[in-house]
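RECORD TYPE: protein structure
NAME: ABC transporter G family member 33
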Amino acid sequence: MESSIGEGEAEGKGNKQGWVPVDVGLLGAVERRHFIDSLINHIEEDNLRLLQKQRSRIDRYALCFFEASISWITVGFQVLFFSAKLVSVHVHKRESV
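PREDICTED:
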C-alpha cells in the first residue's frame, strides 16, 4: 500500500471530516505506528457503535424469549395407544441489562 487516507491535523487540510490522503511510503517509523494505531482505534469505535445500534434495535422491537414447560399425556383406546407432548409457552419481554 503506497497511500491511504488519514486525519488532517493542520487547518484547511482535508474534507469536512478532516481526512486527507497520506503517502505512507514517506512516513517514518513513529508516524507509521501512530497512523496504524489511529486506524485500529477508529475500527474499534465503529464496531462498538455497530453493536450499540444492534442492541437498541433489538430492544426497540422487543424481541421476546420463550419459556416452555413440557408435560406428557397418554391416551389409550382398546387397540391404539399414543403419547403426546404438551407444551405451554410463556412469552416474556427481554429485560435491559
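COMMENT: The first strand starts at residue 3 and ends at 7.
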